Structures are given as C-alpha cells and as structure tokens.
Amino acid sequence: MSASVLVGVGSVGLAAPAIAQPALPPAPVQWLCSPDISADPCDLPSDTTDLGTGEVTGSPELSAEADKPVDCFYVYPTVSDQLALNADLTAQPEVQSIASYQAARFAGQCRVFAPIYRQMTLFPGIAAGLAGAPLAQTGYGDVLAAWNDYLAHHNNGRGVILIGHSQGTLMLRKLIHDQIDPNPTLRRQLVGAFLMGGNVLTARGRTVGGDFQNIPVCTQQGESGCVVAYSTAVADPTVSLFGNSSHDALSPVMGLPSGPGYQVACTDPAVLSGISDPVGITIPSAPYAFGIISMLLGYTSFPQGAPTSASTWTTSAQRAVGRCTEVNGYHDYQFHLTDPAAQPVNELPLFNSHLVDINLGYDRLVAIAEQQTDTWLAST
After folding, report:
1. Among 197, 192, 198, 243, which residue's Cα sits nearest to residue 221?
2. Burial class (CB in 10 A: 0-12, 13-18, 19+), 157
3. How far apart are CA 242 and CA 77, in angstroms?
4. Do residues 265 and 229 touch, judged by C-beta distance below 8 A?
5. What is the pLDDT of residues 180-229, one digit of tens each?
6. CB within 8 A of 182, min separation 6: which ones?
7. What is the 3-state secondary structure (H, E, C) of 91-114?
8. For labelling alongside 281, which of 51, 53, 176, 299 has CA 20 to 30 A away?
C-alpha cells in the first residue's frame, strides 16, 4: 500500500469517528488512461538509456490502438496526498506519475484502460480503513463500475491483462475473486494478471485455493490465464505487511481470505520471463510529481538521486538478482545487488522494498505479458 500505513497508522484514533460512515455509492466512471484519450500518462515512448551498459535503445513505432491484440486494465496503488479519507476523482499529479511509472511500459503490448477511483488516501485514509471504515469499499465500487463499463463499451470479446500494485492489487484481487474467477467466459478472456505487492493468497503448496478457485498463479514460461504475484524484499523480513498470511492486515479490509491456512504467492519473474540476467530498476526519466511518494522514493530506492537520462526511460546502473524465499513465515521475492558497493535500496519498516515491486526488472514483466499474449492468441 505504498507508504500509506507507515504514514497513517498513527492516526487511527483521529480517523475512528469515520468508521460509522457507509461506503459511498459508485461515481460516474472517469478514465485516467484510455485509447479514447489522445495523450494520457500511460502513453509514453519506450526509448531507454541503460546507465549500467551505456546502451540507448530507441522507441519502435507504437502500433495503432486498434491494432494492439489485447487490452490492459490497470489499477494504481496508494498515492493520493489529499487530506481526506477517500481521494476525489481528479487526475492528481501523483496519480499521473504512478500510471507512467507502472503502466506505460506495458502500452506496447495492449490498449491501456486505467480508471480514476476514490482510493483510501495516504493520510488519513489507510489508517481509517484498517480501523474499520468502509473506505476500501468506496474505491472498489468505482473500480467495479469502470470494469463493467469497460466490458460493456470497449472489450468486445478481447483478451485482457490486469495490472495492479498495492491498494490496486487489493482491488483487483476482489474483482477477480467476485467477477472473473467464477465466470467461465471471463476466465477465457483473461490473458494474465500482474498483482504485485498485495498478498495474493493460495492454499499452502498449491497454485489455487486462496483468492481464486480456478485461476492459478503462474509456474512456467509462456503460461497464460494465470497470475504473476510477488512482493520484493532486501533483508530477511521480521515484521512486514507483505508476504505472511498469518500477519495479513490488508486482505480483511476487502473481505478477502486471510489467515495461517493460506500462503502468500511468490512467482519468480526470471523463470516466467526466461530472462535470468541481473536486472536494474527502470523508471521514467521525468521527475515524479512532488509529494509523499516522491520523498519516499528518494529515501528508499534512490538515496543518491533517481536515475535519469535524455531518454524517456532510464535503467539504473545497479543490477540485482533474486529468488522467491520463505523466511520467518514471509514468502517474498528477495533480491540483492550484484555490486556490494552500489547504491543501496533502503527498506521501510513494515514495507520492505515495496516501492520497486514493479520497476525492478520491469522489462521481465513486459516480456511475460508479451509471451502470455502470444499463448492466449494461439489458443483462441
């Protein structure tokens, strides 16, 4: 949930009077990113400078939206700095920045649809949500309305990839659990899902049986109709919001399964992509909109300054390798830098290295999406 609980957990008492308030009714659907918007934050060229190798790759000409073979439905994480319990339905600068960070690199593979939703804010929304206020239900109502609008007016039987992080993953876990997993038609349209940093659950030792009874977590390269899910960590976790189903404060907020009978999913992106080389952190070169998240990115991921270049995207000079581990009951994708003298990734209490869940090895995720699309198209 990005920095949300860390910022907001101390304010639970301040937010407690809101607990009695009912969830707000769904609002009219508003899109942050859509093929119908001529320029949105999910529309970025893919040219990239790799500071580790010095290589500069150009941006291939993007396919016309109508020519892209599948769609992506993206739900962003907790980023709103508004001093409210639920954010409003404006495309705030920090919301636009995170969409570019996390969704724009997928745009070469799919038409990107991203709804604006009244998410639980960084402060005081998350604290109030954890204390029992139905704030997540308000946000989910907006996401569900956007999903239904997308199905009714844009999908036309196309395959779809779901992408979420943190609070966005919680929303998509609920959406898949309620709307897609029980529906054979929608399951057939699911190309894949990237549910990052949000405690996707399975039965212990199985690929299903937690959040989803029919849709499995991915286990092999090229597998489609499955879920990619993990949370990153540098050190062995001891107390964290992510990775341990026995200490999961997030899932109950959405009425999702939780408890020691489940296991938090960790799918190895090197195995699923077929890319085993060490990876960097790839981010847009333009500065992230100033606010709480930009400051936390500076403290955790980029204490010596975010990597930047003349290209639209920049990959850090530092490289990392990792694997799924289970330590102290926490099932995470644990990584370390190959150069011990390189700029470190500082972890936040309770959050591990949450802010790099998608951008560390970003192109592996894009490669997985491309392979899933090829498999799905071949089967339809």
Report:
1. 192
2. exposed
3. 14
4. yes
5. 999 999 999 999 999 999 999 999 999 999 999 999 999 999 999 999 99
6. 213, 214
7. CCHHHHHHHHHHHHHHCCCEEEEE
8. 176
> What span, in angstroms and rounded, lies between the C-alpha atoms of 28 and 54?
46
How far apart (Å, rounded) are the C-alpha atoms in residues 42 and 342?
A: 31
End-to-end CA separation in angstroms for the chain: 36
R_g of the chain computed on alpha carbons: 19
Q: Are 127 and 12 in contact (CB under 8 A)?
A: yes
Look up the pTM and report it: 0.94
Give the model's confidence band at 2: pLDDT under 50 very low, under 70 low, under 90 confident, else very high. very low
For helices 292-300 and 93-103, angle between their N-to-C axes, nearest 10 degrees:
40
Length of the chain: 380
User: Could you give the C-alpha distances from 310 to 66, 127, 186, 235, 343, in angstroms and in order?
Assistant: 30, 40, 42, 33, 21
Q: Locate tokens 């099932």: which residue?
A: 331
Q: Cβ(96)–Cβ(41) under 8 Å?
A: yes
* 3-49 tens-digit pLDDT: 433 433 333 222 333 334 567 887 899 999 999 998 999 999 999 99
DSSP string, 154-213: IITT--EEEEEETHHHHHHHHHIIIIITT-HHHHHHEEEEEEESS--EEETTSSSSSS-S
Residue type, 121: T
What pLDDT was estimated at residue 61? 72
Residue corresponding to tokens 């039987």: 157
Residue type, 302: F
Token pair for 171: 């929303």
Residues paired with 209 in a beta bridge: none
Q: Are the C-beta atoms of residues 323 and 278 closer than 8 Å to each other?
A: no
Pairing of strands 110-115, 31-33: antiparallel
CA dist 134 and 180 (Å) reads 23
Strand partners, 172: none
Other beta carbons within 10 angstroms of residue 284's beta carbon come to 20
Inter-residue contact 300 to 346 (CB < 8 Å) = yes
